[in-house]
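Posting for a labmate who doesn't have an account.
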Amino acid sequence: DLASALEAVVSAGKADVAETLAWTLLSERSASLEPRAALEQTNALLLAVPSSDELRRQSADLYRKVFAGHPQLDVLLKASGLQGSQSPRRATRTLNVCLAITAESYLANRYDGHVVQARKFNELMGEFELADSSGNTVRMEPKNLADEFDLVDENDFRVMCEHRPEELSKRLESDPSAVLIGICMGVVITQDF
């Protein structure tokens, strides 16, 4: 895979050569790709050549194109540090997670499985307002949120345990094997499992 080859070139102390190769590839392929696919490819190359300011700019331009109608795009781009000194991995994760959050989205903590529900983005404070299962408000800035949480489906077992236990109880009574299989196969429990 090309990203691995570019990483090897960077590791050999030839970041400028890796950047040139990455740009050659982007120039050749970007015209034939949809914007989202071009963004994914650019980000993969940026992760391989993290010192490239040009790839950072290209990635930011593609985020602007792909998420043009997103109300918090500019604030999240700035908060991510993509065009600054933040590591590309952390910056792109911040953008990918935060741009996908909508009001009522559920997020599970990557370390302890605790679930919160998104309420809104407070532009003045530059942070997301979330609610835990008790209704308590939790506020997090974008980078920390993306570091600690993953978006999860509303039918994720953890969501149902914490936010809709009565629905989980009903499903356990009506079809316990489907619930257990759902837990084992990726924690999403659907009605027509």
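Reply:
Got it, the structure tokens are right above this. Strands lie at 106-109, 115-122, 127-131, 137-140, 149-152.
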